[in-house]
Amino acid sequence: MPAALDPGLDALLAGYRGYLRLFAGSRLAPALSRPRPVRRTGFETELVVDRREEIADGVVALTLARPDGAALPEWTPGAHVDVVLPSGAQRQYSLCGDTADPARWRIAVRRVDGSGGSHEVHADVHAGTRLTVRGPRNAFPMATETGYLFVAGGIGITPLLPMVARADALGADWRLVQLGRDTASTPFTGELARHDERVVLRTDAGHGGPPTAAEVLELGTAGRPVPPAVYLCGPPALADAVRTELAATAPATRFHSERFSAPPVRGGRPFRAELARTGRTVEVAADESLLTALRRELPGIAYSCRQGFCGTCRVGVLDGGVDHRDTLLTPAERDEEMLVCLSRARDASLVLDL
């Protein structure tokens, strides 16, 4: 338990917090507060949707190109781009086209209930729509190995498609286990059909529910040893289960995963976030992210990756200690800012520049 503060010091701190709230909500704040722009690196341009295609129930693929047909930057399997939607919302999508095609990029988007970004893509983005795109960046790179097992959960096939093509081109031994709710909603099955027995499609509808991690590995190995590397993209529960199963049965295998949803909160405690500019207070539960709680009060708050590496959700901290859980911010930046998708209050409350 922390030591009790001197009554005079406690009153001084309370007054300081009140001053911060008053100042941040005043007309002077925008003029005197230092702006905190999201850092942008690398390529950024306006691309046009060259083609839109529904590739499965609830999934559309968008082919992007420069309006003048000029070459796009090179990219490697596992790369993603930031896409600014017509509303201004920013989302990240894996590139799932041909790395050898210099003129076109492809992304695929599943419509998800409660996801404004995916609904906007499905409703408002069509052939001819122009989108600002940043990237590519790669937080899920593919290493050169003699053998691979790829595991895709639903739309998690997108970063793995170029990896499959790369493994095939290298002549490596590989297999893909593709998981989905049912065949109609599982994307790219037709494109993968040419690989025959190397691709195993397993649906919940056809087997009475989702598979166990042991079943996934059995499907992917067909009785042979687990290959040197396993690459998985899918729900967090699937990734955690396969990681645990590999640690117990094939500890020498290198496991690589990418989540397409926010990681679960671990070791969280409830706290309160005071929003200085608006005067609102947000209660953050132990098992939810600060971003999730903030979106209840500020639905338009900027965010993208929800995993702490893009920097879109950085917010100024006016008062309170921060439990920083990202690897993006520098020590100097951590003195003044936090990424609300991952980081939390170190104590009972924070005052944010919102």
UniProtKB/TrEMBL annotation:
SUPFAM superfamilies linked: 2Fe-2S ferredoxin-like (SSF54292), Ferredoxin reductase-like, C-terminal NADP-linked domain (SSF52343), Riboflavin synthase domain-like (SSF63380)
UniProt xrefs under InterPro entries: 2Fe-2S_ferredoxin-like_sf (IPR036010), 2Fe-2S_ferredoxin-type (IPR001041), 2Fe2S_fd_BS (IPR006058), Beta-grasp_dom_sf (IPR012675), FAD-bd_FR_type (IPR017927), FNR_nucleotide-bd (IPR039261), MRET (IPR050415), Riboflavin_synthase-like_b-brl (IPR017938)
Residue span, FAD-binding FR-type domain: 42-143
Membrane-crossing segments per the record: none
Entry's Gene Ontology molecular function annotations: 2 iron, 2 sulfur cluster binding; metal ion binding; oxidoreductase activity
Cofactor(s) needed for function: FAD
Matches recorded under Gene3D superfamilies: 3.10.20.30, Nucleotide-binding domain of ferredoxin-NADP reductase (FNR) module, Translation factors
Start and end residues of each 2Fe-2S ferredoxin-type domain: 271-354
Keyword match Iron-sulfur: yes
This protein's record includes keyword Glycosyltransferase: no
Keywords, alphabetical: 2Fe-2S, Flavoprotein, Iron, Iron-sulfur, Metal-binding, Oxidoreductase
Lineage top rank: taxon: Bacteria
Pfam families on file: Fer2
Name of the molecule in the record: Ferredoxin-NADP reductase
Lineage, uppermost ranks: Bacteria, Bacillati, Actinomycetota, Actinomycetes, Pseudonocardiales
